[in-house]
Design brief:
The chain is of the alpha+beta class and about 400 residues long. It is built from 10 helices and 13 strands.
Length: about 400
């Protein structure tokens, strides 16, 4: 039997964290290409450091003239991201940092595996394993530690960008150690928050006075007690932040992006990749399936693993684990999944409407546990497959 009483910790990082800034730029580039052509191919990586951003990778459009035109737009796209996040530091400013664009056309050898294969169906863009997870411990069917770590930073970003808290700056990290009793999250044992701030005269105590009301606001009632330990800017001064303080790179926060370590991860990052890349689209599909399994009442927790080979359209394997909470045998759920959803790369994209410019918004505060948007963003968070799954088992 799994442990029922324990403390589990997850962290999040803000949109101004150097790695998240890079994820945002990569996904904004992706959105720009998908807005021009829904079948665009994009694998965009971004690197950021003091006064410099370097963008590289592979892109493809059917119209070569349009491809050249969009290449010229890349620096403006990056500057708009940096400005929206809020960087106007002497050594990292949206208007003055140097931006180098090294994007080039997609490899023909990769394209041949994606565009066609022996049965004339579109193949996966790479081999790999992808995981999805859901749990009933929060309304969003997400693990509580990562869900509320994200919520803290989203709230601090809101009050920073609205001007309510002008002394906060973009770079920040949160971490929650959540206490579980009988398998249910009941409170917070430790809260860690490090946030960039305006000047060196602001002590850790001053920063805590600013952030504590917002942290209390987003956490459930009763979760913070006299026994909760607070660690706010524990090293002291944090004025130099963002890429000027620490270099950033696309795809380095894969656990922050997913389940905070509460579930397995296949290893592939999401940001900057168009949805023919199963690293992204199949991970979204696996979350969608896991969430619908839990939403249907068939289990309280569910982990899904999918596996693919480059150039092969259908998944090589489907694995379900309900962690001893299932009302239905896992094998029966595995058999039901292909009956209700086409898990080929094109089938996933069609079912979840992924060929849209919906990705820049995913770059910070988690790809999962978000509300589906009216324009199709976060479509993998819908629970519209629950009844079909129940009928198919």
């Amino acid at each position: 039997m799994s442990r029922q009483n324990y403390i589990f910790t997850s962290e999040s990082v803000s949109e101004g964290h150097p790695d998240k800034l890079c994820d945002r730029i990569s996904d904004a580039v992706l959105d720009a290409f998908l807005a021009e052509e829904p079948e665009a191919r994009v694998a965009c990586e971004t690197f950021a450091t003091t006064n410099r951003v370097v963008i590289g990778g592979e892109v493809g459009l059917s119209d070569q003239a349009k491809l050249a035109e969009y290449m010229d737009r890349i620096p403006d796209i990056a500057r708009a991201c940096i400005k929206d996040i809020g960087y106007e530091q002497d050594k990292f400013h949206h208007a003055t940092c140097e931006i180098t664009n090294l994007l080039h056309e997609q490899s023909a050898h990769i394209a041949q595996g994606v565009n066609s294969n022996s049965d004339k169906d579109e193949g996966a863009g790479d081999q790999g394993i992808m995981f999805g997870y859901a749990t009933d411990e929060t309304d969003a069917l997400m693990p509580a530690p990562i869900q509320f770590s994200h919520a803290i930073l989203r709230r601090l970003a809101e009050v920073r960008k609205s001007g309510v808290e002008p002394l906060l700056r973009p770079d920040a990290k949160s971490q929650l150690s959540v206490r579980y009793e009988n398998g249910v999250p009941m409170g917070v044992a430790q809260i860690v928050l490090s946030t960039q701030h305006a000047d060196e005269s602001q002590t850790s105590a001053v920063i805590r006075e600013i952030v504590e009301p917002y942290i209390r606001e987003v956490l459930p009632d009763g979760w913070i007690t006299d026994a909760t330990e607070w660690w706010v800017n524990p090293t002291g001064t944090f004025v130099i932040g963002g890429p000027d303080g620490d270099a950033g790179l696309t795809g380095r926060k894969i656990i922050v992006d997913t389940y905070g370590g509460a579930a397995p991860h296949g290893g592939g990052a999401f940001s900057g990749k168009d949805p023919t890349k199963v690293d992204r689209s199949a991970a979204y599909a696996a979350r969608y399936l896991a969430k619908n399994i839990v939403a249907s009442g068939m289990a309280k927790r569910a982990t899904i693993q999918l596996s693919y080979a480059i150039g092969v359209s259908k998944p090589l394997s489907i694995y379900v684990d309900t962690h001893g909470t299932g009302e239905i045998e896992a094998a029966a759920i595995e058999a039901a999944i292909p009956k209700v959803m086409d898990l080929t790369p094109r089938g996933i994209r069609t079912h979840l409407s992924l060929n849209r410019p919906i990705y820049a918004r995913t770059a910070a505060y988690g790809h999962f546990g978000r509300e589906p948007d009216a324009d199709g963003g976060f479509s993998w968070e819908r629970t519209d497959l629950a009844e079909a799954l129940k009928k198919a088992v």
